[in-house]
Amino acid sequence: MKSNPLQFGACLEIFFTDRPFLDRIASAADAGLSHAEMWFTDQTAWAHGMKGDDAKDPDKVRAAAEACGMTITNAVIGSPDGSLGGGLTDSAHRVHWVARADATLKFCREANIAAAIVCTGNVVPGLTPRRMRENVLDGLKATVELADQIGVNLLLEPLNDKVDHLEYFLTGSDEGAALCREVGSERLKLLFDCYHLQIMEGDLDGHFRRNFDVIGHVHSAGHPSRHELWEGETNYPFVAREMAAIGYRGVFAFEYLPLLPPAESLRRAVQYLKGTEHE
To answer: Is residue 20 part of a domain?
Structure first.
């Protein structure tokens, strides 16, 4: 496992939260990581319970990342439930969604962030699953068209609706992969979040292998409780080893709530996955 070719990253909205956002980029680099990611790009998002300052300026984000050799992999277009951005399940919110997607993707382009996460939004009362799926598919196609024009990629994320995101629409990797294949664009890939998919599906290795052709990014957290990877039921060294063995060369990102001091937690997470924690 010491030669594992995976790249590792951390979510800056969860780690080093006692520091201004731009300082977190350098802190992640100091912890030995080469990649990091963020959630929302605008100050509206901070009203939803997150701490921040006015530093989310694309030029400042780009400069801070370049100064420490860090790659920011992605931002997020809208909130999982659709309260920011309107989501994709309800076509009545499409204009709102496209406007938010346009602003987020342009921020990403200016900040040198290669991708943005797409959340589907929640189940819409009164709409059938078939109609909501059609709405999501149409919305993805419209968003891909916009992403093509701006030059930024998209990551479609299934989430669990049992613990964290009640009523969320897209809850499985197979269905997420099917949507990506139906859209049929290299701009759109699946975000394989091991934490959410362990809750909803299990068989992480099987699902990853089956959908490897459209997977573009990986998230991880221990289950239950969403803490360190070793604090839970998932055998993450095995999962990471199998991902690498079948050819995944993307980022394996940490999106968990650390119990340890953040830098120590991240260093231990990398060592844990590489099998070097006792060296």
So the answer is: yes
* DSSP letter (8 states) at residue 232: S
Number of domains composing the chain: 1
Going from the C-alpha of 108 to that of each of 3, 68, 73, 137, 211, the distances in angstroms are: 31, 18, 9, 23, 26
State whether the Cα torsion 241-243-248-249 is positive or negative.
negative
CATH number of the structural domain spanning residue 145: 3.20.20.150
Q: What is the pLDDT of residues 106-133, one digit of tens each?
A: 999 999 999 999 999 999 999 999 999 9
**Helix crossing, 262-274 with 236-245: angle to 10°?**
60
In angstroms, the Cα distances linking 178 to 17, 158, 184, 190, 231 are 36, 12, 10, 10, 32
Return d(Cα 24, Cα 15) in angstroms, integer: 8
pTM over the 0.90 mark = yes
Side chain identity at 40, as an amino acid letter?
Answer: F
Going by C-alpha positions, the residue among 228, 192, 196 that lies closest to residue 212 is 192
**Burial class of 130 by CB neighbour count within 10 A (0 to 12, 13 to 18, 19+):** exposed
Q: Retrieve residue 146's tokens.
A: 């916009």
